[in-house]
Write the structure tokens for this entry.
Amino acid sequence: MFHRLQTLMPISVESIRSAAILIVDDNVHNLEIARQILECRGFTRITTESNPLAVFDVHLAGGGQPFDLILLDLMMPHLDGFGVMTRLKECGNASPVLVLTAQNDTQLCHHAFAAGASDFLSKPFTGEEMYARVNNLLIAHLAQRRLYHENYTLEEAVRQRTTELEAAQFEIVRRLGMAGERRDNETGLHVVRMAYFSRIIALGDRMENTDVDLLFHAAPMHDIGKIGIPDRILLKAGRLDDAERHVMNTHVEIGFQILNGSDIPLLQRAATIARTHHEKWDGSGYPYGLRGDEIPLDGRIVAIADVFDALTSKRPYKKAWSVEDAITFICGQAGEHFDPRLVAVFEEVLPEILEVKEQFKDHSHD
């Protein structure tokens, strides 16, 4: 912190002289003397107030903190300096307060500091004494304010950079997912649709928003392992034989190996999805035959989203199913292929899913 303050110093003379100063004293003569002392030393923004009850209107008129320094008399009628400091604190005042008083009492000083005073100046005082206290308080206050704004600017820059990096990660993952999908789908919009389907189902299942966002951006990578499958199998126009099916099924492990080992949460989620989205609720899926809740939630959600869109999309090896037939299939597989709870969610959010399907439909396929 000391180093940071050093880099911010010195505060310019112009900044100090243009600081906003409020002087509060019920004695008009004292107000005028204080004003003259400060004006003679170049201060240009001085406000005086003889009614302590009016201080709050003056203070709030500037948005809650219009002054860089407040000079405050303690002994005043109607509301003394302690009361003024208490009410200023309630208003959110962060301006330093220089207390002016004719009573040179140690206990009074302690009371004033406890009430929020930053410094103490006993009457009578010379112009040089007042100038020195005012100058020092303003330097400290302006340096602190500049440091606050610098920290805020740096934090905003870090937040902006973090947002940009996250957006870049999401964009790279999305485009890689589309690149993999284009090997057996002309437009690659499958990964866009199923990502939105996954998001809608997750929200319907009341998943935490942060997890929903990661799922949404990770889902497009579910079939990235298909880049390792030979075209003669991937693009075969017909049913695969057992040997070909075995090779095709290896895409989940290929995808997992591509994505695994990263410390980036997005890629960790994508690796899990790639490996588990072909597992089935009844344990008949692959690659490990996981059943029920053994299957990660992301994999269970993506399984429904992926199958629904795959069924209703035309591929080189099949025609598109009707939406009605696909819905019937999904619901009929509750408790077998799919998590029955998530199938119920799927049915509830179906109108939103169909809106997305229409929005991102493959025109060349329809």
Confidence is low (pLDDT under 50) at residues 1-6. The beta strands are 20-24, 45-49, 69-73, 97-101, 119-122. The chain has 17 helices and five strands.
